[in-house]
Amino acid sequence: MGVRLMVVDDHRLLAEALASALKLRGHRVLAAAAPAAGAAELVITRAPEVCLLGTATPAEPGIFDPVVKIKRERPQVAVLVLGPVPSPRGIAAAFAAGASGYVRHDERIEGVERAIMKARAGEAAVAPQLLQGAFSELLNPAAQPDDEGQRLLQMLTPREVEVLVRVADGEDTRLIAAGMGIAPSTARTHVQRVLMKLGVGSRLEAAALAARTGLLDRAGPVNSAPE
């Protein structure tokens, strides 16, 4: 039996792709995208069985305030946090706020669906490898952890960073070209270079990688200027 769901993430491309995949598996998806600021109000109004709530910065103070508000107003709604590889503090903060589980942005659809079913049943939904990784980090903290997002950001030119942000926002080649004041052929070239540098094969994979590593949040606002 399908689950009545909401997918709430401010990265429209990721939200809509996940929503489409879940619809194909028989679930009823009530919404696919929303800015983080309005997430709680949207979920409270629609009252789904399960909400997938996206975040790119699970360790940031206050990031799970929407979860607290949802659980206060709609305690029957199971909230699954959808985010990058979390730190132990990030996992703890999500559950402390009232989340039913934590799912990685790049989890396979089968894993996302298993987490949804567990959350609806009132069970904690978090992949064993995430818990194992969290415990390992707690027991053996890295002195200087690698910053994958910063490393990837340094590989891209400012124009390529802008293209990546626009790709993550769901813009196609025509919109990218119009927004940046460049020819569609130039926009396609930029997109291909971004995919090549990130080592991915599609725009969706590029957007997921950027969200998982926090690259999009580091990129800052884009500047559009004709070439």
TrEMBL record:
It comes from the Bacteria. Keywords: DNA-binding, Transcription, Transcription regulation. CDD domains: LuxR_C_like. The keyword DNA-binding applies. The keyword Transcription regulation applies. InterPro entries: CheY-like_superfamily (IPR011006), Sig_transdc_resp-reg_C-effctor (IPR016032), Sig_transdc_resp-reg_receiver (IPR001789), Tscrpt_reg_LuxR_C (IPR000792). Residues 149-214 form the HTH luxR-type domain. Residues 4-120 form the Response regulatory domain. PANTHER family: DNA-BINDING TRANSCRIPTIONAL ACTIVATOR DEVR_DOSR (PTHR44688). This is Response regulator transcription factor. The lineage of its organism: Bacteria, Bacillati, Actinomycetota, Actinomycetes, Kitasatosporales.
